[in-house]
Amino acid sequence: MNIPNLLTILRLLLIPVFVYVFFFFNEHNILYATGIFILAGVTDGLDGYIARKYNLVTKIGQMLDPLADKLMQITVIACFTVAGILPIWILTIIVAKESLMIIGGMVLYTRKEKIVIPADHLGKAATVLFYLAILLIAFDSPYGKYLIIITISLTLISFFRYLRLALRKMKERETGQQ
């Protein structure tokens, strides 16, 4: 266990804290929950930076880091949807896409070859834009809802790129073994 992986685990632990604060703090709940969300974003940036700078990248980290991101994103969108801040179609698209990514990642990782598809620049950009969109929405900016639509579009493009890459890697492994 290294520092980047511990930061990822911290981010996973912040998810139920976010939900609790979002729904059970009476005054300024969205503001406090957004602070937790920002903290999660900082840990996300830090774990990636530390892992790359100090060569602490691990297969488990490559799997847990995007899982933590996806679970946090789904949680935030679900909370905002339940609160009536975001429409249900946004939650539906994100949950479907992220569920497929989680299941696909687990299937690839549990194969004999333990295939891991690392995050690409488009996926990272979509994550950063997601954090920015949520901040704008939390602070009631009219641009937040436009940015979330752009973010969803980038997320879907990134998903299809991951899918194409995963299928290619699986095919390469299968043909390389025969």
The appropriate CATH architecture is Up-down Bundle
Order of helices and strands: HHHHHH
Helical percentage: over 70%
Radius of gyration: 17 Å
What do the pLDDT scores average to? 89
Number of strands: 0
Strand fraction: under 5%
- Supply the number of helical segments: 6
CATH superfamily: CDP-alcohol phosphotransferase transmembrane (TM) domain
Q: Uncertain regions: pLDDT < 50 for 5+ in a row?
A: none
- Structural class assignment: mainly alpha
Main β-sheet description:
none
Q: Count the domains.
A: 1
Structure characterization notes:
- The protein is mainly α and 178 residues long.
- The chain has a single domain (3-169), classed as Up-down Bundle (Four Helix Bundle (Hemerythrin (Met), subunit A)).
- The protein is built from six helices and no strands.
- The protein has helices at 3-24, 29-53, 59-82, 88-110, 121-138, 143-177.
- The model has no long low-confidence stretch (mean pLDDT 89).
